[in-house]
Specification:
heterodimer, A: alpha/beta, Rossmann fold, 33% helix, disordered N terminus, B: mainly alpha, 8 helices, 81% helix, 0% strand
């Protein structure tokens, strides 16, 4: 019997990705493969191209050159299919302050075409400890609560890939710890997570692969288990300095 | 995605905008106040009893509508930009035309309601007996609101990320709205003079054609406008 050949589809497959804004080269030939069910943290200083990479994967920005596939779907040619599979949590919450928590989730549920949006919303609000505030306007929420609600919004349609773009920005230590606990709970081996951050400690705690993006290039990639956590800061700075040619 | 679902999603966007507006009430209050002020200020400068002021009165009505309308469309995407909501909307697997339709209908309702309030104030202040012309004026207000919303929604999306968006919006859309306002003023002049729509010649049809053309252009180009 002939051996069956299976092409394992990576959750994310980026090849020679370029993104140019005017004269600024934000991404310069990035290659990246993320296996299904894994958690990749991408570190990088400000202006490294982390947010641009996330925007391309989320279909919010078109690549100038190269390709990016999410679950085997091209982000440019099959943007609709990609959007169904991706959830995004960023420092922007994407929440409407004049609407209540439940109204926000019900609205996004409608946009994703969910049939039982209210039930799913209630379930997520309970999971994230916001059930008692579900009928309160988002404008009255603290930054930490808004970010937790933002997690609920991103998980509403049960995405295969979760993109976290600097999710800890603007959070105090207590809110950061709560969010870290929530994100830890997402590591169920089913969902793929890609997170960008410049916070080394928080980034290393949760991931199983580590990458460093500097000046639009992927300059480091390693399994988290093989990375010396105590010496990672030195590795990070060495990679960034090298990218800047210092 | 079926057309029924698409319409449902568009209505969800409209409803979300209207609920947010009713709770904040910042836009509609500004629109109505500005509209009423324009009508009031022009009233001080004209003699309501003069015989040849019909065209001028009509101009006052549409000037008030124009200024109030710019506030409505300018705010519609400004609120989407807060907390990155426009990106949140663009992340959803929804056709861009559906997003445009939802925003357009929201603006249209705000504009039309404000237009009616201004019209009511205008008739009282200028002691205009509309009589049979009232239905015609409401129709002209509706047609003008559609054209204004079509252009305004598109250009508000263009300028959403720009700091001086209100000033830029006015600069971009005023020239495009001139034919619409001229047509609306001509038809209104005829109606205020006590004639029916038939006395306005082709001007009401001009409004219809204007609306169709700019709706078509806006639906076709919105996707490119919100792209990055």
């Amino acid at each position: 019997m002939p051996a069956e050949t299976h092409r394992v589809v990576a959750a994310v497959e980026v090849k020679n990705l370029w993104k140019v804004y005017g004269h600024v080269e934000a991404l310069k030939g990035v290659d990246l493969t993320v296996a299904e069910g894994s958690f990749l943290t991408i570190f990088g200083p400000n202006g490294a191209g982390k947010t641009t990479l996330m925007k391309v994967l989320a279909t919010l920005a078109r690549p100038t050159d190269g390709s990016a596939l999410v679950g085997g779907h091209d982000v440019t040619k099959e943007a609709g299919a990609v959007r169904k599979r991706v959830g995004v949590i960023s420092h922007n919450t994407y929440l409407y302050p004049q609407l209540t928590a439940m109204e926000n989730l019900a609205f996004y549920g409608r946009m994703y075409g969910l049939k039982r949006a209210r039930e799913r919303s209630t379930q997520l609000l309970e999971q994230l400890g916001l059930a008692t505030r579900m009928h309160d306007r988002v404008a009255t929420f603290s930054r930490g609560m808004q970010q937790r609600l933002s997690v609920a919004r991103a998980l509403l349609h049960e995405p295969e890939l979760l993109l976290l773009d600097e999710p800890y920005t603007g959070l105090d230590q207590h809110a950061s710890r709560i969010l870290a606990g929530v994100l830890e709970g997402l590591r169920d081996g089913q969902r793929t997570v890609v997170m960008t951050t410049h916070n080394l400690q928080e980034g290393l705690e949760s991931c199983d692969r580590v990458a460093i993006l500097a000046r639009g290039r992927m300059v480091f990639e390693e399994a988290a288990a093989e990375v010396d956590h105590s010496g990672f800061q030195a590795t990070y700075f060495a990679c960034v300095e090298r990218a800047w040619g210092r | 995605m079926g057309p029924v679902n698409a319409l449902g999603q568009a209505w969800a966007i409209t409803k979300k905008d209207l609920v947010a507006e009713l709770r904040g009430a910042s836009t509609i209050v500004s629109m109505v106040l500005l509209g009423l002020l324009v009508v009031l200020v022009f009233n001080f400068g004209t003699d309501p009893g003069a015989k040849d002021v019909t065209l001028a009165r009509s101009g006052v009505l549409w000037a008030a509508f124009l200024f109030a309308g710019v506030i409505a469309v300018g705010r519609s995407f400004a609120t989407e930009k807060e907390a990155g909501c426009l990106d949140g909307l663009l992340l959803c697997p929804v056709d861009r035309a559906v997003i445009y339709l939802g925003k357009l209908v929201g603006n249209l309702i705000l504009l039309f309601v404000t237009g009616l309030v201004i019209l009511g104030f205008f008739t009282v202040l200028y002691n205009v007996g509309l009589g049979a012309g009232s239905a015609g004026l409401v129709l002209v207000m509706a047609l003008a609101s559609i054209g204004f919303s079509a252009i305004g929604t598109l250009f508000a999306a263009v300028g959403a990320g720009v700091r001086a968006r209100d000033a830029l919006l006015a600069v971009f859309i005023f020239p495009l709205l001139v034919p619409l306002i001229i047509a609306a003023a001509h038809v209104s002049t005829v109606l205020l003079a006590g004639q029916g729509l038939g006395g306005a010649g082709l001007w009401p049809w001009f409004l219809v054609v204007y609306d169709v053309i700019f709706l078509a252009i806006s639906f076709m180009t919105f996707d490119f406008v919100v792209e990055e």
